[in-house]
Amino acid sequence: MDTSAYLSGLKYLVPEIYLLAVAAVSMFVHLFAKKRGARRAGYVVLAGLIAGVAVLFLSPLSPGEIYSGSLSVDSFALYFKAIFLLSGILTLVLAFRFFGVEKFEAGEMYYLIPFILIGMTAAVSSIDLITAYVAFELFAIPSYVLAGIFKKEQRSAEAGIKYFFLGTLSSGVMLLGMALVFGLTGETNFAAIGKALAGPNDHIALIGMILFFVGLFFKAALAPFHMWAPDVYEGAPTPLVVFLSTAPKAAVFAMLIRLVLTVFPKFEVQWTYIFQIVALITMFWGNIAALGQTNLKRMMAYSSIAHAGYLAIGLAAWGQLAHTAVLFYLVMYLFMNAAAFGLILLVRKSAGFGEEVADLGGLARSSPLAAGCLLVVLLALTGIPPTAGFMGKYFIFAAAVEKGLYWLSAAGALNSVISLFYYFRIGRAIYMEEPRPGIRFEPSVPVLAVLVAAAAVLLVFGIFPSLLTPLAAALTLIK
Amino acid sequence: MFLATLSSWSAVKDRLKEYYLFLLLLEVGMIGVFLSLDLVLFYVFWEIVLVPMYFLIGIWGGERKFYAAIKFFLYTLFGSVMMLIGILVLYFHYHTFDVTAMVEAGNTLPLALQGWVFFAFFLGFAIKMPLFPFHTWLPDAHVEAPTAGSVILAGVLLKMGTYGFIRFSLPLFPEASRKYVPLVVVLALVSIVYGALVSLMQKDMKKLIAYSSVSHMGFVMLGLFTFSPMAVKGAVLQMINHGISTGALFLIVGIIYERRHTRLIAEFGGLSSRMPVYAAVFLIVSMSSIGLPGLNGFIGEFMIIMGTWQVNWVWAAVAATGIVLGAGYMLWLYQRVMFGKLENQANQSLKDLTLREFATFFPLVVLVFWIGIFPKSFLNVLDKPVEKVIRIVNPEYYKDAEAALPRPAVAPAAAPTAAETTKPKAEAR
Predict the structure, then answer these.
(1) Each residue of B402-423: pLDDT tens digit?
(2) What is the torsion angle, in degrees rounded to the nearest 10, for the CA atoms of residue A331, residue A334, residue A335 and residue A336?
């Protein structure tokens, strides 16, 4: 590749370069600010991410593959990049409150977020094994640090170590899968591999695909590779869990979609079965395990596993409708999760308070606005109309029914019922129980703003899903 | 609905704003359910009803309110999500959510699939009704709910189930409906007799009335699935009747509960001497519930049993025992509460109905007599729609009826012209 092609390709990488700049500026602010450097670094990142949304939409789409077929900056990738930025923004808004209460603030946690975002934005554009792996690791490794960043708390350290060991192991397995696929075909470009694999059936390639999936399933907390999630989510600082439980999941689903459509179209029968089984196990495991939890963070961890399971139904029933459904659901899931973890921060006064369901007793009396928003969020998580959670599930189940997977959609529907029980354990605490003695709730304003925004989004898109669905449906550049 | 609000005037004292907010939300859902012809919209409203009801039971309920509220929510949500899958299957078959369009497209669903979809809808509706063996949420929900909640539950929510059967199940899955008649009828008969027997031995007034609901809804179900026009009309009328009489009974219990804070039958006795007006209203309503000729309950139950008899006399006979048992538990309840000596000191100072309470009952009592004495004004409205449903689900009936002379007087008189049958179905409720 000559230099001019290299330079002309750079304009497609504007969002990544921009995020790098944000991270760098924030780092310097942290180092050189006279006081409260960490917090200021955080403000820089937040402002940077908000402006980043504009940068994202102004940056051009690549005409096709760029950099010798390693990246494709298409509108599909753009959609996901917007999700990541949103997730980052919501996380930061929630984080200020959290670290204020905890009296502990590390600048790293703010500027690691743009680094992770670079990894994810690159991952969803990558159409090459090497680029995909590098991007994957780029967002994986800082997230291990984020999980363990809360050094004074043992749980956080445990979460970091656990996430790190299991994460690197699964990355290794994924790399082995890539190696097998590369060894068979001698290609690294996705489409080229797809073409090379189109020959007679090959079991090694199938094994390669499965190993490849294992790494991704791990990152998305899909059963049976979800074991790390409850511990990590419980131990990691709460606002970062908002990030860790939404953005990487969206990135992995984007990568999975690209992979199955370009690299492994040949194994459609096989991966359809894999996703069916994974969806089934994940939903039931997540929901049933959540039933017994009294700790909100663990409960929401299992709930997020269950939601990954619903998304996997979409992959199992892949088609135009499922495509729309998954893209729609991922956005709504981001808002649901941000609000659900925001709930924990909302009432936080001292370290640890607000993490038990019973801590929320009587919230509706002192803060009806927060309670009303939370009710909408809980309905959305359960999948009850008129919220966007219902529309998301509805599209996914519809996709499954369209493909004749009646049993899978019935299982998904059954899981909504199971999940109702534990979500409304929260609803019951908020509306029906008495506050703990001596507790007066003073909801923090930024957290409340996130809740109101989330509830508004969930209601608006629940009643008018067509505001987003045509956009999501139009993004099928890759078939 | 309006009456329910009146009844909570003094019963609900705390968190008023939220209480009426939930009542209004409930109203939104209920009106929506009965007006929707689009299946997704129907489903959306159907679910919306659950949420405020959950909170009404959970916040203003009795001692075991958490248990009752979540049980209600889980049961009905389970039924409705299965219905959602059924709706989706229908959509991918007909490519529309419009029920009238589906019916006009004719019944093209293959029988095996139709059976599954029928069962998906059946679960949704039967749990809501509730039909034995899906009834266990009902007594809990009724007992723990505040009076207004019970009234709405009995008066409207249960009707959503039977309405669903007559509106969606029968016209959309005629073959499957015919195929599963024995199963449904057996369940309906079990509901009738079992509900009545369990009512007999209840110590709590509200629980007694709740089980009597199971029994009455069994009648409705029996009437619907005989596919004879008379029984179906009876069933629809019985839905209205049950709403009136059971709603009124819950109001009655609510009034006494408000004064004494207990619903145990053993706590009362001889109230008629202290509360004569109350006693009179209670008498009228319980007679209507039993089905005394001249009152509304009689018309519905009589038509159902008549219609059933034409199809199968054994079913009718079993159903009739339900009426006998019904008279047993209602009269016994009345006797224990109203007659005898006024022994419990706490009951000495009970006040009779206030004007507001009387105003709550007045329209109900008027309706009880109106339907009982002149049911034709209601039945006329029902003729056409019922006939249309029957033509879809049981075309044999009209062939037989037109062949056999003289026709039964109550059956729709003239054979309708082709133009009439294609008319959109009039709103029955």
Answers:
(1) 555 444 444 443 444 333 333 3
(2) 110
- pLDDT of residue A54 exceeding 70: yes
Q: Of B50, B82, B91, which is closest to A413 when you measure between CB atoms?
A: B82
Question: What pLDDT score does A176 carry?
Answer: 92
Output B416 or A364, whichever has higher pLDDT.
A364
Q: Which phi and psi angles does A208 have, rounded to 5°?
A: -55, -45
CA distances from B315 to B12, B130, B234 (A): 44, 20, 15
For residue A63, the 8-state DSSP code is: S
Note whether residue A134 is domain-resident: no
Whole-structure pTM value: 0.84
- φ, ψ for residue A400, nearest 5 deg: -65, -40
| Percent helix, strand and coil across chain A, each to the nearest 5 | 80, 0, 20
Write down the domain spans for chain B.
Answer: 1-179, 198-387
Residue A177, in any domain of the structure: no
Chain B positions with Cβ closer than 8 Å to A: 15, 18, 40, 43-44, 47-48, 50-51, 54-55, 58-59, 65-66, 69-70, 73-74, 77-78, 81-82, 84-85, 88-89, 91-92, 116
Phi first, then psi, for residue B263 (nearest 5°) are -125, 10
Residue of A nearest to B52 (CA): A375
Rounded distance between C-alpha atoms, residue A427 and residue A424, angstroms: 4
Dihedral sign, Cα of residue B151, residue B156, residue B160, residue B162: positive
Query: Would you list which residues of chain A are within 8 Å, Cβ to Cβ, of chain B?
Result: 364-365, 368, 375, 379, 384-386, 390, 394, 397-398, 401-402, 406, 409-410, 413-414, 416-417, 420-421, 424, 428, 431-432
* Chain A residues with CB-CB distance to B74 below 8 A: 417, 420-421
Q: What is the pLDDT of residue B419?
A: 37
Measured distance CA(A283)–CA(A289) in Å, rounded: 10
Residues in B touching A369 (Cβ below 8 Å): none
Can you tell me which residue has the tokens 């409850």? Answer: A230
The pLDDT score that the predictor gives to residue B5 is: 46
Please give the residue of chain B at the shortest CA–CA distance from A397: B85
How far is Cα A378 from Cα A388, in angstroms, rounded to an integer?
Answer: 11
Residue with tokens 């079993």: B318
Choose the closest CB to A397 out of B44, B69, B84.
B84
Rounded CA gap, B396 and A20, in Å?
Answer: 77
Backbone CA torsion sign across B245, B247, B250, B254: negative
Q: Indicate if ipTM > 0.85.
A: no
What range defines the domain where residue A454 resides? 268-479
> How far is the CA of A101 from the CAs of A146, A242, A295, A445, in angstroms?
18, 17, 19, 14
Interface A:B, Cβ pairs < 8 A: 70
Long-range contacts of A431-437 (CB under 8 A, 24+ apart): A431/A364, A431/A371, A431/A375, A431/B55, A431/B58, A431/B59, A432/B58, A432/B59, A432/B65, A432/B66, A433/A358, A433/A360, A433/A361, A433/A362, A434/A361, A434/A362, A435/A361, A435/A362, A435/A363, A435/A365, A435/A366, A436/A358, A436/A359, A436/A361
Reading the block at residue A274, the tokens are: 């894999």
User: Residue B418 has what pLDDT?
Assistant: 38
For residue B421, what pLDDT is reported? 38
Within a domain: A351: yes
Burial call A113-127: b when 16+ CB within 10 Å, e when fewer: bbbbbbbbbbbbbbb
Task: Count other C-beta atoms under 10 Å from residue A190's C-beta.
Answer: 25
Chain A nearest CA to B308, separation (Å):
35
- Total domains present in chain A: 1
- A352 pLDDT tier (thresholds 50, 70, 90): low
Residue (of B119, B129, B93) closest to B177 by Cα position: B119
d(CA A3, CA B76): 66
Residue A263 forms part of a structural domain: no
pLDDT tens-digit readout, A204-221:
888 888 999 998 999 888
